[in-house]
Specification:
binds 4'-deoxy-4'-aminopyridoxal-5'-phosphate; 14 helices; globular; Aspartate Aminotransferase, domain 1; alpha/beta; 2 domains
């Protein structure tokens, strides 16, 4: 049996997505590709719950490129930004901003914790008093290195109330954790194809609010050409209008798969066009609930085994992965033993704490497959040196919640 890929991305994908991505690559001007691209962009607005005036962008690349595109199109040298630090990927965002010669302040919390929203409010107020206000707040929705979930709704609200742009890295969250881009007033929500969207790696996916588009229009220092919204906007608009266009060759097999993957998330039949905002809300509510259910089931299994998570409390625990502390007497060698049981999980990623925990992804297609989740629980149990009996008990704890 092929091992299951249960790391926090890339992950298992559905047969329909795999089929859509396989075969001879379509040309970027093929009518079928143009149709799939337009449909994918319209479906992104629904998965992002971002409203009709928002602008989706699909570019070949990984999540890191999506982060870079967000930074380069909203910020320029001399601007000020506030970064909420919840782990390794927030640190990467701060690094990118510094390389754009942006002045960065960071609100941080110890490993496994999240800063309070009130600390963000105070930092914003202080900067205003100093007459050097922040232009934007950067948040990692789920920091994959710690499994910490940020209160994106509250943080986007604080940003909006204070006139800051809010830019949220949803690489380990989009399409799984509740995020209502329009209702919450977020300005950029970005992800990559290989996580909860359910595709192979290879696409950077972003949606911009009208305010974010205006921020690009006002920049005096343009982004590098390949990352510039000004270069890409006419292309995205052409695809939505069903017109051929070219700026840089898209990953055509992945575009075809994207339309299919987003359709699965929305419960759409075939190439059906999105059926309006209410239908999108219904579909996304079901999608968020699915991930909550899967996460609670996995946590019940970990609790049955007496395992502790990295996130300090439930309200900041992601639903897309479990970051699990090694129990006493178990070290990083457990990851290889779990893999030997036929399920691939990931080690820790936080530079200072990576020897203390491991990570199990349960998002996207995996969250829809109870059998995959139960197989994972068994492999983890045995890999940690526990018995088949304990594995069955942990599986039963999860199964009752699935
Ligand atoms: N942000 C977060 C929250 C991530 O989890 C990741 C990848 N694990 C990235 C950014 C970077 O994405 P990529 O590895 O696709 O460049």
């Amino acid at each position: 049996e092929r091992p299951l890929l249960m790391i926090p991305g890339p992950i298992e994908i559905s047969d329909a997505v795999r089929q859509a991505a396989s075969g001879p690559p379509p040309g970027h001007l093929a009518p079928s590709l143009i149709a799939a691209f337009g449909l994918a962009l319209r479906r992104m607005r629904h998965v992002w719950l971002s409203g009709a005036s928002s602008q989706p962008l699909v570019v070949s690349g990984s999540g890191t490129l999506a982060m870079e595109i967000a930074v380069l199109n909203t910020m320029q040298p001399g601007d000020r930004a506030l970064v909420l630090h919840t782990g390794y990927f927030s640190a990467r965002m701060a690094d990118m901003l510094a390389r754009r010669s942006v002045n960065v302040d960071v609100v941080r919390a110890p490993f496994g914790q999240a800063p309070e929203t009130s600390e963000v409010e105070s930092a914003i107020a202080r900067a205003k008093e100093e007459k050097r206000p922040f232009k934007a707040l950067f948040v990692t929705h789920v920091d994959t290195s710690t499994g910490v979930l940020a209160d994106a709704r509250a943080l986007c609200g604080v940003a909006r109330a204070n006139g800051l742009l809010s830019i949220v890295d949803g690489v380990c969250a989009t399409g799984a954790e509740r995020f209502e881009m329009e209702a919450w007033g977020a300005d950029v929500y970005l992800t990559a194809s290989q996580k909860a969207i359910g595709l192979p790696p290879g696409l950077a996916l972003l949606v911009f609010s009208e305010r974010a588009l205006q921020a690009r229009a006002r920049l005096e220092v343009a982004p590098p050409l390949s990352a510039d919204l000004d270069a890409w906007l006419p292309i995205m608009r052409a695809y939505e209008a069903g017109q051929p266009s070219y700026f840089a060759t898209p990953a055509t097999p992945l575009i075809a798969a994207l339309a299919v993957g987003l359709g699965e998330i929305l419960g759409a039949e075939g190439a059906a066009e999105p059926a309006g905002a209410e239908a999108a809300e219904r579909a996304m509510n079901a999608r968020f609930a699915l991930h909550e259910r899967a996460a609670k089931a996995m946590r019940a299994a970990w609790a049955a085994l007496g395992l502790a998570l990295v996130p300090a409390r439930e309200s900041i625990t992601a639903h897309t992965l479990s970051a699990i502390q090694y129990p006493a007497g178990v070290d990083v060698s457990a990851v290889a033993r779990i893999t030997a049981q036929g399920v691939i999980v990931a080690g820790g990623l936080d530079p200072e704490n990576k020897a203390k925990y491991f990570r199990v992804g349960h998002m996207g297609y995996s969250a829809t497959q109870p059998a995959h989740l139960l197989r994972t629980i068994r492999a983890v149990t045995l890999g940690l040196g526990r018995s088949e009996d304990e594995a069955r008990t942990a599986q039963r704890a999860a199964e009752s919640l699935l």
